[in-house]
């Protein structure tokens, strides 16, 4: 479903990813862990086309993200190509990023209506179902600023799912939440992970959450994968010293 | 109930002899101010200044710097007196006036638009990308509605600036409020009274603009949830639960 080939990413002089190869199967749930600055979030941002690769290629469902064919040549992707590949991908952000100029319902329906051309009534029906699923059925007409952080993040999850993505990217989705709101969002994501066939790519510092939802865990450091394996293996008997150090630091925090 | 027409020549004393002329002038002043060109220019140029394409940004930049950096009066002389000499095409004086004011204050306006658009948090655009909006849709449905709130207060200043700058049009013999005032004084009306009336009328007009813009600002703030329109209703609902 997702394939990184020798992907490099530099911001100015800073190399964030180097020669990164990995792939994710359809329906697979993968968690990226590692110290901050190790390039995890950059991977999600590259997939969402918020950043462009410096070198290498990324394929999603066989389609290249960064380039397209024109005649026999590979040329950088134009906006039309990008919109085509983005259709398959959804993202939930650390800071929720709900649109403050729209109410909750509108936040969820606006993109399906505008970007996919779904009739508004149909989009609203779907949105109400999603709101029920995230346990906010009564908040359709509330304004984002009237919601708690946890509620806002649940709306953001509903909003991403309304686009019916095949791949969902979760970028530290509970990091900005007050501690008592974290479990609500995590439980929701657990349910979504276990009932759907979404391909999930998740960056998190919550190791219990990572253990619960993922098939596979990738440990990153300095833009490279230092270790990968099942959650059981990574969390109980990590092979690399770097992983042990990291887990020790996180779990004792 | 007695209604008094403030423009009537029947008014007692100096008022009766001056107000009809000042009212004519006020109309012309309003006409020149409501030419609308400031906003019409500010929005597109301001957006151009935030473009991804360097060439587009450069065009906007050159326009903004040029018209901000030269005097309105000189621009007015160019449009009205110098351009006909160069091109043989004579503009109507009010039109030339509206155009010069629009180009000049529009340059400031584009700076306001640019600043407001840039001030929308990056996460908002990124969320819009992630939801697969097209670049136009991102601007239209996500960025501009949020930027608009930021634009209103500085635009209020600008519109008042514009109103006052219309007095420069008297330099190309547009019969605006300031021009009528000077005519009256030259033809023997009491200077103090005429100039006091001028002050009062300009102030009234700009205060009207402020009132209007405050209304717009409140509406806009409500749209992005800075103020909660149904706060009281929401609290009542909360209490009822």
How would you describe what is shown here?
The complex is a heterodimer of chains A (253) and B (241). With 253 residues, chain A is an alpha/beta fold. Chain A has a domain at 98-164. Helices cover 39% and strands 27% of the residues of chain A. Chain A is built from 9 helices and 12 strands. Chain A has a 6-stranded mixed beta sheet, with helices on both faces. In chain A, helix 3 packs across helix 4 (120-133) and helix 3 (104-116) packs parallel to helix 5 (149-162). Chain B has a single domain, classed as MetI-like fold (Orthogonal Bundle). In chain B, helix 2 runs parallel beside helix 5 (93-118) and helix 4 (72-87) crosses helix 5. In chain B, 34% of the residues are buried. Chain B has 241 residues and is mainly alpha-helical. The chains are: A alpha/beta (253), B mainly alpha (241). Chain A binds chain B through residues 48-50, 79, 83, 86-87, 89-91, 93, 95, 97-101, 110-111, 114-116, 142-146, 159-160, 163, and chain B through 121, 123-124, 126-135, 137, 141-142, 145-146, 223-225, 228, 234. Chain B: One of its GO terms (biological process) is amino acid transport. Chain B: One of its GO terms (cellular component) is ATP-binding cassette (ABC) transporter complex. Chain B: It is a multi-pass membrane protein. Chain B: One of its GO terms (molecular function) is transmembrane transporter activity.
Q: Mean of residue pLDDT of chain A?
A: 92
Give the CATH architecture of chain B.
Answer: Orthogonal Bundle
Integer count of domains of chain B: 1
Estimated structural class of chain A: alpha/beta
Number of helices of chain A: 9
Fourth-tier CATH superfamily name of chain B: MetI-like
Percentage of residues in DSSP E strands of chain A: 25-35%
- Count of discrete alpha- or pi-helical segments spanning 4 or more residues of chain B: 10
Q: Distance between the terminal alpha carbons of chain B, to the nearest Å?
A: 52 Å
């Amino acid at each position: 479903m997702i394939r990184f080939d020798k992907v490099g990413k530099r911001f100015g002089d800073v190399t964030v990813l180097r020669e990164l190869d990995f792939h994710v199967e359809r329906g697979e749930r993968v968690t990226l862990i590692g110290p901050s600055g190790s390039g995890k979030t950059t991977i999600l941002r590259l997939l969402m086309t918020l950043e462009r690769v410096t070198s290498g290629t990324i394929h999603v469902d066989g389609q290249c993200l960064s380039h397209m064919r024109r005649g026999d040549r590979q040329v950088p992707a134009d906006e039309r190509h990008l919109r085509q590949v983005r259709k398959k991908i959804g993202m939930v952000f650390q800071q929720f990023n709900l649109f403050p100029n729209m109410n909750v319902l509108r936040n969820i329906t606006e993109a399906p209506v505008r970007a996919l051309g779904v009739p508004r009534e149909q989009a609203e029906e779907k949105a109400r179902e999603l709101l029920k699923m995230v346990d906010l059925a009564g908040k359709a007409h509330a304004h984002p600023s009237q919601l708690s952080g946890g509620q806002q993040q649940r709306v953001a999850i509903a909003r991403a799912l309304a686009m019916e993505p095949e791949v969902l990217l979760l970028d530290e989705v509970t990091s900005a939440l007050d501690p008592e709101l974290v479990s609500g969002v995590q439980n929701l994501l657990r349910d979504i992970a276990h009932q759907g066939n979404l391909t999930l790519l998740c960056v998190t510092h919550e190791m219990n959450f990572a253990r619960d939802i993922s098939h596979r865990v990738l440990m990153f450091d300095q833009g490279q994968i230092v270790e990968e394996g099942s959650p059981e293996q990574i969390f109980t008997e990590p092979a690399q010293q770097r992983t042990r150090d990291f887990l020790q630091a996180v779990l004792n925090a | 109930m007695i209604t008094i027409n403030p423009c009537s020549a029947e008014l007692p004393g100096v008022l009766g002899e001056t107000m009809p002329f000042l009212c004519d002038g006020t109309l012309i002043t309003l006409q020149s101010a409501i030419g609308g060109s400031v906003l019409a220019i500010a929005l597109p140029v301001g957006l151009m200044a935030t473009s991804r394409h360097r060439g587009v940004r450069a065009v906007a930049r050159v326009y903004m710097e040029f018209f901000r950096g030269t005097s309105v009066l000189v621009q007015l002389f160019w449009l009205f007196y110098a351009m006909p000499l160069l091109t043989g095409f004579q503009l109507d004086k009010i039109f030339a006036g509206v155009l010069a004011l629009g180009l000049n204050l529009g340059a400031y306006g584009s700076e306001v638009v640019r600043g407001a658009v840039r001030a929308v948090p990056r996460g908002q655009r990124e969320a819009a990308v992630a939801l697969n909006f097209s670049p136009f849709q991102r601007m239209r449905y996500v960025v501009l509605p949020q930027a608009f709130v930021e634009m209103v207060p500085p635009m209020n200043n600008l519109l008042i600036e514009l109103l006052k700058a219309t007095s420069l049009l008297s330099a190309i013999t547009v019969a605006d409020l300031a021009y009528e005032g000077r005519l009256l004084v030259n033809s023997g009306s009491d200077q103090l009274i005429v100039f006091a009336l001028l002050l009062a009328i300009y102030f009234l007009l700009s205060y009207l603009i402020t009132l209007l813009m405050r209304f717009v600002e409140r509406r806009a703030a409500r749209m992005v949830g800075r103020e909660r329109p149904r706060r009281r209703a929401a609290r009542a609902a909360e209490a009822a639960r």
